[in-house]
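Weekly modeling sync, notes
Attendees: S.R. (lead), two postdocs, one rotation student

Agenda item 3: backlog of single-chain predictions. S.R. asked that every request posted to the team notebook include the full sequence so nobody has to chase files. The rotation student volunteered to paste the first one in as an example of the format we agreed on. Action items at the bottom.

Example entry:
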Amino acid sequence: MSDRKFVLILDESLPPGVLANTAAVLAMSVGKLCPEIVGRDLFDSTGNVRRGITTMALPALKGNGELLRELRMKLQEYEPGLIVVDLIGATRTTKSYEEYAEVLSETPEEEQQYMGIALYGDKKIVNKFSGNLPLLR
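Predicted structure, as returned to the notebook:
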């Protein structure tokens, strides 16, 4: 059994399409930072290659914007040992990564609207922050 864990914590009030996009963006970002969690390419019964997918379970948990903000602040002391990736509402209003970077750098923390947070790292630490959260259904 692995001593590592990967979870997504998403704002359950978001519309379904935004939730799906938030989960995809967060998972992709963690995958870039931790390529070891993506398995090797496989072959199907006809010999066609199937690209590797995550080798870990990836539960999507639910919370709300305020919970996400509180978590984000608490998680800072565990970085960089704990991989933390967050997504804020500015991604819904900006047209480029450069514009997003500008809004992120100029918006006070208390005005950030968190849509989701991904956590990857020591299972005990991840569970400390996510163990009591329900699954997003």
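Discussion: group reviewed the output briefly. The domain at 4-130 is CATH 3.40.1490.10 (Bit1).
Action items: rotation student to repeat for the remaining queue; S.R. to check formatting next week.
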